[in-house]
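Input.
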Amino acid sequence: MPFFLFFLIIYFFFFFFFLFSPIVADDGAVMKKLATSLYSTPSDWKSNDFCSWTGIRCDKSKRVTSISLASKSLSGTLPSNLNELSQLQTLSLQNNQISGALPTLANLTNLEEVYLDNNNFTSIPQTFFTGLTSLQNMSLSQNGNLEPWNIPTDLADSSSLVLFYASKVNAVGSLPDVFGSFPNLQSLRLSYNNFTGPLPKTLSGSGIQNLWINNQLLGLSGTIDVLGTMTQLTQAWLHENAFTGPIPDLSNCTSLFDLELRGNQFTGIIPSSLTSLPQLVNISLDNNKFQGPFPAFGNGVKVSLGTTNNFCKPKSSPCSPQVTALLAVAKDIGYPMNLATSWIGNDPCQGWTFITCDAQQKNVMVVNFAKQKFTGSISPAFANLTSLKNLLLNDNNLSGSIPVVLTNLTQLRVLDVSNNNLSGPVPVFPHGVMLKLAGNNSSIAHGLVAGIVAGAVILMAVVIFVICRCYAKKHKQKIGLVPLPQNDKEMGKNGVMGIANGHGGFGNELHSQSSDDTNEVQVFDGGNVAISILVLREVTNNFSEENILGKGGFGVVYKGVLHDGTQIAVKRMESAAMGTKGMKEFQAEIAVLTKVRHRHLVALLGFCINGHERLLVYEYMPQGNLGQHLFNLNENGYSPLTWKQRVTIALDVARGVEYLHSLARQSFIHRDLKPSNVLLGDDLRAKVADFGLVKNAPDGKYSVETRLAGTFGYLAPEYAATGRVTTKVDVYAYGVVLMELITGRKALDETMPEDSSHLVTWFRRVMINKDNIGKAIDPVLNPDDETFGSICKVAELAGYCTAREPSQRPDMGHAVNTLAPLVEQWKPSSHDEEEGYGIDLHLSLPQALERWRSEGTTDTVNYSFNNSSSTSRGDTQSSIPPNTFNSMDCR
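Output.
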């Protein structure tokens, strides 16, 4: 009996001991699963004691603290519950062939080191970095099979991070703005991914020593100014991206020994703060657009400059004084790319855009920066161009004040700074300087100028107003302008209606005619200048067969030649044949093209309603449409388009559609983007045409259409299935056009086998393995290595644009940013039609008079800034006549 009581006491003792003692976790289940999911594990992994396995370390409680199996030829996968090893501090599995999805490491608060590089992992969970509060080193590089993924902001939990390597891991999106959370971060390597956008602001002041962000597929963009604050930098690899602007002041980066900047879009002068860095031993600057004097680096520095930079020559000589002054001007507006590509050599009088020189003395007389979308400030360096007569800076986004030193320009006659964001006092210029100030900030201080000249200005303005009215009245009678109709009855009597903006003198010729025909008149907002049917019959040889350019669904297009030699295209339609659908498209085309003006949208010069006829008048595009150049070379007698020409056309179309989507005052969706609606000029620059199906773009919502419109092969899946319309349906169609440019194949080709007749489906299969892309390229291109790289970038963009989900497609602005660097490296031969100076045939009569007064004998000075503000985009056509289609977006 006593023995039984003793046994009972012992039993209850152990029962309560285990009941109330803390539970000790067992890592055995996780390790057993790890052992079965990996192949080629060490031979001793068959024992039951996992803490004795090769590469495994445990603490005294048999909790796993380290898994170190680098370069063990392991394959297989990792178990999904790996993060149950809560005491794990080191995970080292690099240089193996492990595949499958990476498991989450969430909340492994003791984990300090992770090395998973050089494996075959296929995906990474969003929670992978969550709660890794002790993490110091993370290396994921060389896992190129990963699905596209974004670096999450959860990485900021790892405030002790010292090293982060994620090169060639298919990471996308923007760099996370979390680097201010890592006071100890020394090495950041993110090369060979697809990051886009600017460098994060939180890099400023960081202690990073080794920065590798080179070779992004579409390219990081923006400036690299933040590097100037990263004073601990020793090595910075930024090559093969899309960075812009000048090199910042790096004088505080005294430990920098290796700087790779090649293959970007840098401009400006190589600063002395770079050439004098004490530790620098290697620098690459080739394939950029640097300017100014040849940089002089110290002995022992390996320098790569290439052939694309535009340094002054000869190497040993400084830049000429005028070039030095103009480059200082460019500095204050951020060294824009269009100046860097055209300001070549040491003589600004030898083909520099925006510059006009005195033919005899070779001195700069005119600088015309009007409507170039320049930002920055007005440079005092203009004062060093002592022969300057006309300085035109209007319709940009310049800020700051007008430098007082410009009053020292003794030859200055015109200073136009209208429509900017200038503020501050207005300097007092000498008598005889025409100063145009309207459209700037209302905060501009007039100072003493207003009090001194106010009375004189008012008096002179009255006199000039009277002179202008008299001159305009006489000139109007001289050229025979048709009076504007005052009401619907008068419109019916005049019998014609339309618009004309003076393209190539077309406006004057149309204005000089009237018609006695009676017509139906559909009233459109703003229409007020008549186009006579008599004029259209005359210029088209009475719509003769010889003048036919083509035939479409609703009519025939005729070529017309005005008396001054200007060529036009006249689309003639019969209202009976058009039906209700055709009438709506006729009205839609007018409604859209009277509200937009852009160099890459075909301009509607006017329209005419004559009985049952409906006529639209366009600018003439002599090289036909893109489809003829891609698919019907022989019958049209065209030479195959080079890749340079194709990518330039693609950029032109992207700019035109971007304007429709987001830059015009009212946004539109084209809905029928395809090669036959891309027209080409003599220089093979493209313009988007056929706006009969255009719809207003919804503001962030779907617009449900009851009638499907467009062309099969270019229809986005969601539009074809549901009728939902957003700007992304144009992006999809644009992606199809890119594929056609790359392959030379039609969107739908019934002559091809069924499995490859649909271009998008076939192209997607090709892009699964990028090694096959060479087989998809149009054989006539025969690309070299550089061209092949460009084609691959465009192919990648085409894939994004034709994504099945509209939310996954980029906007057209992204397409422009992607293609622009590919075009600029070839320096297209055709200069912007608005880069000229002197007589502007696009000016209306009042604007022409204003120009005449500024260059004539008048001494009028306009010293007033007003509260109006008009922004102007460099890609838009300008000088729309006043009172003509007031709702038109002229930005």
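The chain has a mean pLDDT of 80.
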